[in-house]
């Protein structure tokens, strides 16, 4: 087996949970092979460069192996090699997301029921004895 459909390969390499999700991503233009938008039936071979975008995360990988069936994660990791530029870009995105935390993230965890009742009592001006 020297070549396989791109949707099957994406599913076997565990980029998508189902083959249907992989097909939808290819049809939606989120997957490019060799810099070009492709159809789900496009055959990929070892050495092809594949660009995959899932949400905010983009990856550029080089196909190193071909599989038609989905195996375990260790086998799936041998089917591709991510480019150094892609790794650096993903690390940069991860750092930016960490620095740009949403509003209220520094407030801490959600209050417990007891803490919420104490806060509400303070707002009403009541004074309760801590249990």
Structure characterization notes:
- The chain has 131 residues and is α+β, with helices and mostly antiparallel strands.
- The chain has one domain (3-124): RNA-binding S4 domain (Structural Genomics Hypothetical 15.5 Kd Protein In mrcA-pckA Intergenic Region, Chain A, Roll), CATH 3.10.290.10.
- It is 37% helix and 21% strand.
- Helix 1 packs across helix 2.
> How would you state the average pLDDT, rounded?
89
Order of SSEs = EHHEEEEEHEHH
Oligomer: single chain
- The domain count comes to 1
Q: Strand pairing plus helix content: what structural class?
A: alpha+beta
Approximately what portion of the residues adopt beta-strand conformation? 15-25%
- Biggest sheet, strands in spatial order? 3-2-5-6-7
Task: Note poorly predicted spans.
Answer: none
Question: Could you provide a short overview of the structure?
Answer:
This protein is of the alpha+beta class and 131 residues long.
Write the layout of secondary structure elements.
Layout: E1 3-5, H1 6-12, H2 19-27, E2 31-33, E3 36-37, E4 43-45, E5 49-54, E6 57-63, H3 73-77, E7 80-82, H4 84-99, H5 113-124
Helix pairs in contact: 1-2
Features:
single chain, 131 residues, alpha+beta, Structural Genomics Hypothetical 15.5 Kd Protein In mrcA-pckA Intergenic Region, Chain A, 5-stranded antiparallel β-sheet, two-stranded antiparallel sheet, 7 strands
């Amino acid at each position: 087996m020297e070549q396989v459909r791109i949707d099957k390969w994406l599913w076997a390499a565990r980029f998508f949970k189902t083959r249907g999700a992989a097909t939808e991503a290819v049809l939606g233009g989120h997957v490019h092979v060799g810099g070009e938008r492709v159809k789900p039936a496009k055959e990929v071979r070892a050495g092809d460069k594949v660009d995959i975008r899932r949400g905010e995360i983009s990856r550029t990988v080089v196909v190193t192996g071909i599989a038609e069936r989905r195996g375990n994660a260790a086998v799936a990791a041998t089917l591709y090699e991510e480019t150094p530029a892609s790794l650096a870009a993903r690390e940069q995105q991860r750092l930016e997301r960490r620095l740009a935390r949403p509003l209220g993230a520094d407030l801490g965890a959600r209050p417990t029921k007891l803490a919420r009742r104490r806060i509400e009592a303070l707002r009403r001006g009541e004074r309760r004895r801590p249990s």
